[in-house]
Amino acid sequence: MKKIIQQLKKVGVHVIENNFDIGLEFFHNGLDYSNEIDTLIDELITATEENGSKRILVECPATLLHRLSKSKERMRIVGERVIYTRKFSKQLDIKAPSHEIWSPSEPRALIFLSEVMGVEIKEAEKFLSSMKTELPSQVNRMFTVYIIDGEPVGLVFPHIEPDTNQEGRMFWIGVHPKHLGKGHGKALHRIGLSRLQKEFYAKSYLGATKKGNLPMRRIMQSNGCQQSENSMVSLEYIQ
């Protein structure tokens, strides 16, 4: 399986792996190698069936989907996402609202995360575990809490995507249910952008959201992000 993953990386596929999933991403650079990528994904699925129970997730441009005949046959389409990007420059100074950095190992962090995500503590622990596996060198400075009048109202996890040219992303972002509908999403996203620029030294930002998630799309647009021409299709394989 490791050999297949290395071959995927050689043809421009970005691989994200944790204890539960193998994520594969490729953008325009997949055009020249689409047949090879399709074959390698097919081989990876077969290897997964033989060696374990990891889920495989694929993100590819909608315009390339017709070239992935083998992958389409063995995977199911689970959604379509829109990509937004923003370049950072030394002259740009993104102001961030009040926030704090919490350690993910603090009990209050786990409790707050479970409340914001609307899941049980065990699911929140699983989420943090996958984040630690994917981003071990960054995880302790990612847990960013938006604070209003001393009260935590939302969470964002900025980070640099491994194996990229300092591309900043947000692992997850969410407002606490008590504070939904109050316009806090824009400020929370802005905190993430500010930290990416000033503390993670990102050269650019890439964000993705479901095509139908109009509130998040408006947030990214209002914070200076530009929509990419091509949408991304999400495929999933589970044994």
From TrEMBL:
Source species of the chain: Virgibacillus phasianinus
Keywords associated with the record: Transferase
Superkingdom of the organism of origin: Bacteria
Gene3D superfamilies: 3.40.630.30
DNA repair is among the record's keywords: no
Domain N-acetyltransferase: 100-239
Protein name: GNAT family N-acetyltransferase
SUPFAM superfamilies given in the database record: Acyl-CoA N-acyltransferases (Nat)
UniProt xrefs under CDD domains: NAT_SF
PROSITE patterns per the UniProt record, alphabetical: GNAT
GO MF terms, alphabetically ordered: acyltransferase activity, transferring groups other than amino-acyl groups
